[in-house]
Amino acid sequence: MTTVTKNLLARKEKLLERLGATEDADQRSDIERQLEQVDTALQFLRAPEQTSE
What we know:
mainly alpha
């Protein structure tokens, strides 16, 4: 696992914690948007691994 992947997973974990701790709709929307970006980045980084198998 690369450093970039580890950092993205750590960021995702923190965002999920924040999502569970907030009830503000605007904050939740912003966190969900950031989670989508992190997930997209993780999928992009994993794509080469899947094609090489």
